[in-house]
Amino acid sequence: MRDSAGGPRVLLRRLRELMAEALDPQERLDHIVREIAQNMVAEVCSLYVLRADSMLELYATEGLNPGAVHLAQLRLGQGLVGTIAASARPLNLSDAQKHPAFTYLPETGEEVYHSFLGVPVLRAGRTLGVLVVQNRTMRHYREDEIEALETVAMVIAEMIATGDLARLTRPGIELDLSRPVSMTGLPFNEGVGLGHVVLHEPRIVVTALFNEDSDDELDRLETALDSLRLSIDDMLSRRDVAFEGEHRAVLEAYRMFANDRGWVRRLKEAINNGLTAEAAVEKVQSDMRARMMHMTDPYLRERMSDFDDLANRLLRQLMGRGPDALAEILPKDAIIVARSMGAAELLDYPRQKLRGLVLEEGAPTSHIVIVARAIGLPTVGQVKGAVSMSENGDAIIVDGEDGQVHLRPQGDVEEAYAEKVRFRARRQKLYQELRDRPTETRDGVPVDLMMNAGLAVDLPQLAQSGAAGIGLFRTELQFMVAAAFPRVEAQERLYREVLEAADGKPVTFRTIDIGGDKVLPYFKGAQHEENPALGWRAIRLTLDRPGLLRTQIRALLKAAGGRELRMMLPMVTEVSEVRQARDIIDREVRHLSRFGYLLPTRLKLGAMIEVPALLWQLEELMQAVDFVSVGSNDLFQFVTATDRGNTRIAERFDPLSVPFLRILRQIVRAGDQYGTPVTLCGELAGRPISAMALLGIGFRSISMAPAAIGPVKAMLCELLLSDLSVVMEEALANHSASTDIRALLRDFANKHSIAL
Fold first, then answer.
1. pTM (2 decimals)?
2. Alpha carbon distance 353, 346 (integer Å)
3. pLDDT the model gives residue 336
4. Element (H, E) at 601
5. Domains recognised in the chain with CATH numbers
6. Which pLDDT band holds residue 505 (cuts at 50, 70, 90)?
7. Which of 206, 365, 377, 397 has the fewest CB atoms in 10 Å of its CB?
8. How confident is the model at residue 269 (pLDDT cuts 50, 70, 90)?
9. Residue 469 gets which letter from DSSP?
10. What is d(CA 382, CA 358) in angstroms, rounded to the nearest whole number?
11. What is the helix (H) or strand (E) element at residue 189, kind and residue range?
């Protein structure tokens, strides 16, 4: 842009000087609107700020009646200013009074002005106010004038975001940025968390807004863009499972945006107008987000999140910041807010500081949710807009029981939830008192309540929860959080630590279960698959890469020297796979025996039933293994053709349906017939109501997250299993298969005073 007396660069330079001067907020705003009016040869410049009550209040003006400041106000959607705020789009009119939305405010004295240009004050796509210029003459403002006003609006947005204007609010009035917001999602893990927001991939706060040299900033932008494009191209060139399927589609969208000429042109225009490269990205990102939010095409609206992620990546490139820097300064009551994240990423955070998790995406059986449940983290998913509405440090409440998220809650809401936390603490004390009580029903039927685990940090919960043992130790989590394949020594060390912590209680180690939705970034062996959940994963992968399986088996055998060892094979489809795995185990036993290693006193080999094909091989399977465990998550997914990671259908089908419960009962009966112990270790075991259903169809061993053991045990101790078994048998015998099992169980619980 030109550097003339009326040019945008001169205006930004003057604003930079004003921001540096020791002025109170009102005085600074008054100077800003005066400078804008003078620079744009406008007779009026006014700033309206959006309040928490959805009113736009006049905060500063040059040209209108100064007595109207902090008195004149419009509702969101009312008048030209309200229309701009509601639509988040500029309005450029040569005769404003003829526009159908025009509203006359007599206190302002604006009736003599015809031409009107208003732009929204945006931050991260959120409207914080409206900036307006007006003239008596009828004219349309030029594109460069609109761009200049939008750039100034971005600077004002940062002033609002930093809290500078909060001192100007009247008692009892709050700005929209601090407005309490309640959002509803899906409850993924029970519990209530009170704390402060930590954005998983936080927006970079841009503090250097004005550039000293546009050419230098353009060079920085080009360098960062080149680096960003190279990183995306590099990820797309890989052929491992980490960058296929939905991951690849997202990366393709990133590449499309990163090479979009219009996007780059707007970035360069903002720099030429006087912004730094970082401020240019912030401005263009906010403008783009505001426009995309109002698109009706659902596909284009979904791409908004991709664009946000890409812009944040570019900001981090420009500012040299990594996404994990925030973990070092985490508050002691952190509640992570993220679009989505991997299980390993959650485990990167100091566990003792976490109080909750909020996801814009996710499904109840996705691995991030399973890990959150394992560490007892209240979790709510499918909370649309949570990331854009939150700022780091905002007070937040997560209610994992009813799916509510309260951002910047009012005092009475916060106190109500604090009481809820105290009530839950009293219930937890009750569960602790049950810990040493025999785990049996009211009519004396013993039941093994086992816990699921996957890392050494889970082990203290074995004693705390009163679990009968570890029914599922997910060995792949050690691989998922490592930067490279763990060596045999590291694996042996972990497995020995687990067995020592168990102190004689049974531990079932599931052999490495990778592939599908569990990806190892460093594993280069996989090829692109259209349906990775149905592809090369778990036992299929390890039988094809026997070196990987042999290494793990050797570590398990050495760690379990002098103890019983229980190994379980995941994703078994044919009984022949069990025989192949047993051959590898026998070979490792002979190898260690030859070199004089202490071997396990007893070795039990089991299989997971999660592939429907095994339902027609139950007789052969029960005779080929020492035990079986039902992986209800995957079994339900495959039986109902329901992708558990697909949020559109994840809640569509109920695992407590008559058909699926009949399948589970079939497995239990086969185990009883052949004397083969059967456990269920999916998420179905972790809620009292579904655990009740499992007990009613014959399960006597179930494994769950440690936090679920107390509530399930409290239910179990009050349960007359003989009565429930009759009720369940009658329900499953109903040939209509339309019985509402959940309603049936709730009715049974109410009649017998059982808390669910």
1. 0.59
2. 12
3. 93
4. none
5. 4-160 (3.30.450.40), 179-201+325-422 (3.50.30.10), 212-322 (1.10.274.10), 434-750 (3.20.20.60)
6. very high
7. 206
8. confident
9. S
10. 8
11. strand 186-189
